[in-house]
UniProtKB/TrEMBL annotation:
Entry keyword Ribonucleoprotein: no
Protein name: MFS transporter
MF annotations from Gene Ontology: transmembrane transporter activity
One Gene Ontology biological process: response to antibiotic
Keywords: Antibiotic resistance, Cell membrane, Membrane, Transmembrane, Transmembrane helix, Transport
Compartmental location: Cell membrane
Stretches that traverse the bilayer: 21-43, 55-74, 86-103, 115-136, 148-168, 174-194, 206-226, 232-256, 277-300, 312-329, 341-359, 365-384, 405-426, 446-466
Membrane protein topology class: Multi-pass membrane protein
Domain of life (superkingdom): Bacteria
Domain Major facilitator superfamily (MFS) profile: 20-469
The organism of origin for this protein: Kitasatospora cheerisanensis KCTC 2395
Matches recorded under PROSITE patterns: MFS (PS50850), SUGAR_TRANSPORT_1 (PS00216)
Length: 494
């Protein structure tokens, strides 16, 4: 029986094991932080670098494009080349790209730096998650580790606006430079704390070059098309042609994966109902959250007249709940399992989004923002770790990078698609008007879309809970806790 590195019969972890987890959490925090942190700084960036609104959009989209488009390739590279190696190299690239972004004086260079950061995150995210899932034995130990890890990711995304609001007041370049020392510290600590794992179980076989090209091109083009559709028009020849090309690339990818001896994505992984449900739920989970954050930010600043810092602080309660929930969510997952915890989290977020539909010209923090953010924050704290645990449970060690890449791809692509659709609905609703009535006419249907997307995710998650409820209890067996040689280094420190 294969036992994951670090598995032990009690709940105590060695200082080295904690240190490795902190390194992985720091990288994931930075990856998620960069998705949301640049938003508040955009007006300052545009004014300083003389960028148009269409060009400014790519400061955000460039990162999402690199991140979402290359996650599958990053996950498979971790399986084939070694998770530690891929993680450390990509983290070094992330630090360099962050420094470049904070020093450039050119819009195209800034967008290029953002794209490069997204590419590096596409390799650190699945490599880091698969290190977690192959280091901690499936069950309480892995649930606890994943709860802490994914809470750091969710906290990074949730707190991005707050941190950006504070840094932008001193200068927008600080939002790009702030991750540099953290990434370098994590890199140096990772070299020392992440084990080389000479006995690491890697995926066998060669490289699926054709699959990598078609699969990566399909995801990149999909994210690009959805991002650009608002400006080009959803029914324009350019958008429809791009979507047709995406479908052709996707079909070619599936055909290649079904026939190649060593596929980039083994299609058999989707035979797991848990993996399918987790990825479908992840699509709506991050998509709805990104759409809500976009609408809420515009509403608070444009209609209610809040400053960037006030907006960041107004959204802080949700992020604070996520940041403080690491230990408790792990215990809930141990007791009830991700299939039961996930729908509770998604339901809480759905109610939070629905409550925000009460927005009007005179809404206040206590009556509107606070109750919604408390529900959304609590829901995100429950749902985000649950979806990651569900997406990697029951997957063999040599495919943990693949499973991690799949769920991260679902999160990023879902965010891009739902955000683009939310933006299109909002723009159509306002009709170009700037008065309060016109703005509300755009915000409300956009929030209806966000709420509807979450309802879809809730229905998918509920199927897992119902299936678990009908499942017959399995006989309890005593786990085999024999340690492989790989554990000796960490265990000797106890």
């Amino acid at each position: 029986m294969h036992v994951a590195y670090g598995a032990m019969t009690d709940t105590r972890w060695t200082p080295r094991l904690w240190g490795a987890l902190v390194v992985l959490c720091a990288a994931m925090f930075l990856d998620a932080l960069d998705v949301s942190m640049v938003g508040v700084a955009l007006p300052s960036i545009g004014a300083d670098l003389h960028l148009s609104d269409s060009a400014l959009q790519w400061v955000v989209s460039g990162y999402v494009l690199g991140y979402g488009g290359l996650l599958l390739l990053g996950g498979r590279a971790a399986d084939l080349l070694g998770r530690r190696r891929v993680f450390l190299v990509a983290l070094a690239v992330f630090a360099g790209a962050s420094l470049l972004g904070g020093l450039v004086d050119s819009g195209p260079l800034l967008i290029g730096a953002r794209f490069l950061k997204g590419v590096s995150a596409a390799f650190t995210a699945p490599a880091g998650l698969s290190i977690i899932t192959t280091t901690f034995a499936e069950g309480p130990a892995r649930n606890r580790a994943l709860s802490i890890y994914t809470t750091c990711s969710a906290a990074g995304f949730s707190l991005g606006l707050v941190i950006s609001g504070l840094l932008t007041s001193a200068g927008w370049r600080l939002t790009f430079l702030m991750p540099v020392p953290i990434a370098l510290a994590a890199l140096l600590a990772g070299v020392k704390l992440l084990p080389r794992q000479h006995g690491e179980q890697r995926a066998s076989g060669g490289y699926d070059v054709a699959g990598a090209i078609t699969g990566t091109a399909a995801v990149l083009l999909l994210v690009f098309t959805v991002t650009e559709a608002q400006g080009a028009g959803w029914l324009s020849l350019r958008t429809l042609g791009s979507l047709l090309l995406v479908a052709a690339l996707a079909a070619a990818f599936l055909l290649i994966e079904a026939r190649t001896a060593h596929p980039l994505v083994r299609l058999g992984i989707f035979r797991s109902a848990g993996v399918r449900r987790a990825n479908l739920t992840a699509l709506t989970l991050m998509g709805a959250y990104a759409g809500f954050q976009f609408v809420a930010t515009l509403y608070l600043q444009r209609l209610l007249g809040w400053s960037a810092l006030e907006t960041a602080l107004g959204l802080l309660p949700g992020g604070a709940i996520v940041a403080l929930s690491a230990g408790s969510v792990g215990r809930l997952l141990d007791r009830f399992g991700p299939e039961r915890v996930l729908p509770v989290g998604v339901a809480s977020m759905t109610v939070g989004y629905a409550l925000f539909l009460r927005l009007d010209e005179h809404s206040g923090f206590a009556g509107l923002v606070l109750p919604s953010m408390l529900l959304i924050g609590a829901g995100f704290a429950l749902a985000f770790p649950s979806v990651n645990v569900a997406a990697t449970s029951g997957v063999s060690d040599d495919e943990q990078g693949l499973a991690s890449g799949l769920v991260n791809t679902a999160l990023q692509v879902g965010g891009a698609i739902v955000l683009a659709a939310t933006t299109a609905v909002l723009t159509a609703g306002t009709g170009g008007g700037t008065d309060a009535h016109a703005q509300l006419a755009g915000y409300r249907p956009a929030l209806v879309l966000v709420t509807g997307a979450t309802v879809l995710g809730l229905l998918v998650a509920l199927t897992g809970a119902l299936r678990t409820a009908r499942r017959k209890p399995e006989p309890v067996s005593v786990p085999d806790y024999r340690y492989a040689p790989l554990e000796a280094e960490v265990l000797s420190e106890r």
